[in-house]
Amino acid sequence: MAAERRADRIRQSLEQDIVTGQLPPAARLDEVRLAERFQVSRTPVREALMQLSASGLVEIRPRQGATVAELGLKRMVEMFEVMAELEGLCARLAARRMSQDERAELQRLHEDTRRYLSDNDPDAYYAANLDFHEAIYAGSHNGFLAEQTRGLRQRLTPYRRIQLRRAGRLADSFAEHEAVVRALLSGDAEEAELLLRKHVTVQGGVFTDFLSTLPYGPGEAGEVGPTNQDSRRRTAG
């Protein structure tokens, strides 16, 4: 259990570095240097890299090690477009198929996120937000659709999470969820689909703006080592 927690902590830290541009595309992720950085053995580092590989943020190649995946803007926008369509379809089906208990649970989950909005806690909000979206996937009562939506969402998780740190985004997200809940509770399938698709598409637009501010261009890369914090200070100055 302790090893799992260490791996998760390392994954979250590297994930944050990747989506904020601290670790640029093609940057080499050396297990030994990362173990030194986090003061752990190579085992939790290796597990964290495998998790990041599963989400599409890291590429692991035999005899070459791990590098930050080179995901271009066009690719990410394409993924957000598909994500919006999948989530919209989940909402359409959920509006027609959710039981009364499932609708009540969705409303409860939505209300639970309000406290994190008041606390301005984007990380806690995002964790609760995952449960909210999962309830809609489950409410579609289409296992294959839920599986595909969940898989793509996992790849986009760090990008969707980082958007919540933008000024005003928590309040906007909550308001968008509020409208989705009303449509689902009333059984309005078309409105629910439109609103949830728009919700994800809005995030895609925010992400495009975010990427345009990153301090690196295509092909710029470096190697992660113990002096990584020093390089961050130089570029931030």
Describe this structure in words.
- The protein has 237 residues and is mainly alpha-helical.
- It has 2 domains: 69 residues, Arc Repressor Mutant, subunit A (Orthogonal Bundle), CATH 1.10.10; 140 residues, Four Helix Bundle (Hemerythrin (Met), subunit A) (Up-down Bundle), CATH 1.20.120.530.
- 73% of the residues lie in helices and 4% in strands.
- The chain is built from 11 helices and 3 strands.
- A 3-stranded antiparallel β-sheet has the order 1-3-2.
- Strand 2 and strand 3 form a beta hairpin.
- Helix 5 runs antiparallel to helix 7.
- The longest helix has 25 residues.
- The radius of gyration is 19 Å and the shape is elongated.
- The N and C termini lie far apart (39 Å).
- The C terminus is likely disordered.
